[in-house]
Amino acid sequence: MNKFYSLFIVGSLLVTFGCNSHSSHNQSDSQNENAHKEQHADCSHAHWSYEGEEGPENWKDICPGYSACGGNSQAPINIITSDATSNDSLFKLTTEYNTSNVSVVNNGHTVQFNVSGENYLMIGEKKYKLLQFHYHALSEHKINDAHSPIEVHFVHKNNDTDFAVLGFMFKEGKEYDLFSKYLTQFPTEKGDFVSEDVIDLKELIPSNLSYYNYSGSLTTPPCSEVVNWYVLQTPQEASAEQITEFSKILHNNYRPTKPLNERKVFSYTE
Q1: Quick one: DSSP state of residue 107?
Q2: Residue 176 DSSP code
Q3: N- to C-terminal Cα distance for the chain?
Q4: pTM of the model
Q5: Residue 37 above 60 pLDDT?
Q6: Where are the domains of the chain?
Q7: What are 44-95's pLDDT values in tens digits?
Q8: Of 48, 136, 171, 224, which has the fewest Cβ atoms less than 10 A away?
Q9: Which residues are catalytic?
């Protein structure tokens, strides 16, 4: 009887352990499946904005595919220059920019130039293709707690999980040549402007490419945390009139800064 009873107890424990282990695996599989569904959810019909119930604080809840907007490595941030540290592993930025046709679109969130041709940003031996550049007003990043009137983002891609965004600010000064030529053509609402004109992309960016670097995200939904940010220390200039007119088109299209959390900001000086 005792021997039979002992075998019964051992058998019961094995069944119980097996059930619990199976339950644990099912729970883990379910969590992974939910995470996969969130990451690949179709949000093409979701509507977001920069204010109200569909504004930045609620982006993460608008669509499961936007859940990353509530992550811990989000952009933009407030860059405190005295806290940025030099890092010997950082590379000089090399822009292999050429020319592009003029293709401007107002998508309801920003004014964006879609870039044609083969244009790249080299970071060490890694090559990132330039896809487009677009504008925000006020700036999305703050420098020492202060916004700039306009910020532009040059978006580059190495692969689906490796983007490099080159951002820089504008300050009031002399006229900016690109704005002088095309500001009156920028669509003031959803629409596009296409021209056979060719622009020299290298002329659009500062000559000094010293930068602040941190790991972050896209600043618009889906807010994917796949971006290495390179925020240039040198701004470009635009006239007071240009800044005023462009800001009217952009309608405060900036995301408020997000906590740095455990991340660090590094600096590189040419």
Answers
A1: -
A2: P
A3: 84
A4: 0.86
A5: no
A6: 73-268
A7: 999 999 999 999 999 999 999 999 999 999 999 999 999 999 999 999 999 9
A8: 171
A9: 109
